[in-house]
Every structure is written in C-alpha cells, then in structure tokens.
Amino acid sequence: MSTSTGSSQSTSTSSTSAIATTIKPTDLRGILKYVPRFQGQIFIIAIDGSIVADENFGNLLVDIAVLRSLGIKVVLVHGISYQIIELSVMRNIVISNSDGTGLTDAATLDLAIRASSRVSHALVEGLTQNVLKCATTNAVRALPTGIIKGVDQQFTGKVERIDKEFLTELIERQVVPVVSPVAFGPDGKSLRVNSDLLAAELAEALKATKIIYLTPAPGLLIDGEIRREISIDGLREVLQDKPERIAEATLSKAVHAIKAIETGTPRVHILDGRIFDGLLNEIFSNDGVGSLVYGNDYAQIRKAKKSDVRMIYNLTRAAVRREELIFRSQQAIEKNIDQFFVFEIDENIIACVTLYFFPGKPLVAEVGSLYVMPFYHNRGIGKKMVDYACMVAKERGASLILALSTQSFGFFTNVLGFEETTKDVLPEARLKLYDESGRNAKVLVKRLP
Questions:
Q1: What's the burial of 353, exposed, middle or buried (CB within 10 Å: 0-12/13-18/19+)?
Q2: Helices (H), 14-56
Q3: How far apart are CA 163 and CA 264, in angstroms?
Q4: I need a surface site. Which of 174, 235, 276, 308 has the fewest CB within 10 A?
Q5: Which of 402, 419, 410, 331 is CA-nearest to residue 367?
Q6: Quick one: DSSP state of residue 16?
Q7: Per-residue pLDDT reduced to its tens digit, 10-55
Q8: In what order do the strands lie in the sheet with 190-192?
C-alpha cells in the first residue's frame, strides 16, 4: 500500500509441511543482519510434546544449535500432554487431565513423571548429538493449586517461583536449561504444571525477549484462519468477548501470550513445529511462518533515525517505479528523516509514513510517503500508520490533515475517513509544488476531532 504523500542437574516424528519456505545459503546475509539485534538475548522455546514425537524434531534441534552458535541464549521448556495420552492408552489407565490445567490424580501424575522423563531425555539426547551442553533442572518451585469451584485439584501445581540465579548461571556457562512441566513443591514432591504457563513464568523471571511456542498448529487460529500478527489488545478483546473464536489447539497459547506480554516479554510467536526450518524462518525473515503477538497497537511504530535511511530507500523503491510514490534520494530522505515514522517487526522496517507541518500553518499537517511491504497488506498496518500520524499531528496542535494520492485515494476515503477536495486547500508553497509535479494527484482532507 502506498501514497505519494535449581540445584541438581544432569548433563549429558507428522509430515513436513510442503508450503514451508526454506532458508537457503544465499539468505545468509539476510540472517546476519539480525544477529547483532538478538545476540545475548534470551529466547524461551516451548515445545509441545507432539512436536517432540514428530519426524521434524531432529531438524528442530539443529535449528536450536544454529541459534546458540549465533550467540542467542536459549531455554527449553517442553510439554507432555501427547505422551501422557499415549501412555494412558498403552497401559489402559484413565487419566484425569493431560495438559496440567485440570485435576491431576495420582495415576495421572505417575504417567506425567514418566512422560516428562522420556521427553527430557529425548531433548538432552538430541542436544548432545548437536554438540550442545544442556541440563535438566529442578529450578521450578510450585504450590498445589488447591480447591477450585469445590474440586480438589490434587497434584496440579501453580508456579511459586523460578530459581533464576540457577538458570542464569547455567546460561552464562553456555548450558541450555531443559525445564520440565513437572515441578516441585515445598516438601520436594512432584506437581504437574501447564507448560504454556511455565514458559510465560520463565520469560518473566529471566527477562526474555521472546517466547516461541512450537505447536502442531500453523499459528494462532482465529475464526479458522491464521492471524499472522495481532496486538495484545486485539487478542484480549477476542478472549473476553468470544473465546470460542480461537481454535482449541491455540487457545492456551493465546491466554499465556497475554500473560507474558503483560509481565514484560515484548513478543510471543506461535508456529508449527513440524515445518522444516520453520523456527529459523520465523526468527530470521521479514515474513515469518507463524503468528506474532505483540504489545499495544502502536508499540511497533517509532520515529525514524538516520540509520534507517537506506532501509527506507530500499523499502520504497518498488513503489517509486510504479509511480505510487515520488522519488526521494537517500540524501533527501536523510535530510527529512525527522518527518518519517516506521513500523518494525523484530527491528525490521516493513512500513513507513511521513508527517509534515507547514511553516506558518500550525493547524495544518500533511501525511505522505505511506508504504507497506506487499506481504503485510490487508493486515491494517497502513491504517495504523496513518492513524498514528494523525494522533501525533493532533498532539502538536493540528486540526486538519492533508494527503495527496494518485493510486490509493480509495483507501484514504473508504478506510481512513478522508474526503476529496480541491487543490485550493493546499498552502501556497505546497500548491506550487503540486502544480510543478504534473502528477495530478487527488487532494484529500480530514478534520481531526
């Protein structure tokens, strides 16, 4: 879209999606631009038990080894629901709950301990094969959930505290902590904890910058469709009004994504762990393969900096060729960089807009140079950018916003509430530039409330 304007430790497969996009060796330069941004940061990677059982599990561990080789600190937490159900069928034992959100009776706890041991071992074995140091830990302390709505939850637990000093020490020693959803109570006995919740608790304690939920679902499913990105406000609204709109397979992830962001984790990713190279593509590409949950609606918009000039120039070149935007050299962009706002995903600019104030006309501002990468069309980003510019203009005292467009005027009138007017509304200096350009752009106006 565009417009012209712990304490103890031990060290030691479903079909691959055909639609997966694979990072090639030629993409190395693209990957490396992310490395300075992510080096030294902590990612919590939460792996569903079904992903551990998938044939792509070995490839996933290689991806994790790649992250470690790039200086990204990783903590692994795993689920066991799939394995508990499998064991219950094999042993003909009726379970009370598989995912740690309901009552856990003694028989279910026994299966949970066995399943957890099996999954933790599979992770340690796989990480060892990839020449990574790792350790299973007892870093999670829990309390019994107690009685809920008159029902004793027995051996289901809630996280009391994370031994972050212990985990931090492991991380600093280049050891990958492997955290099980079987925690330990004050008496040292085992309690079953939900792994999605545990990932959020770990992220808060360790001040992680990302949680990555690896699931057997293609991403966050709302109304049967993948939402590639959604703000915490938008997701909270769905959960409060109609939680049934969210697919059961991703409902728990959605709930705990909100918790994680509310407690300080900037971004939560939900993606299909069965996709070959899916983890790397989600982290090291503009588009990703799953879903991103982020903070408030404007958290990803910021003022442009001089270091953004080249990226803005490259971002808009295609629109300039199509005569959607007026050509601006890198020098011109740098000279007017204070007019630009950019939209970032993982510090990668995917959209821009300008806001210009006319000298001697404090009540009038112009929004322009709106451009959104094609992959991100129809996600509301263009509207968000213009709304943000209007908000800034209003804060600075403007009451009238102008926009000039040759090809996107329908978007401005139908979506943003602008109205078409004559060029006479343009300030004198702007009118002269308009006439000299010969573009015959539509002149649009919007009054700020």
A1: buried
A2: 28-32, 35-38, 49-52
A3: 18
A4: 174
A5: 402
A6: P
A7: 333 333 333 344 445 446 666 776 777 788 999 999 999 999 999 9
A8: 157-162, 140-144, 182-184, 190-192
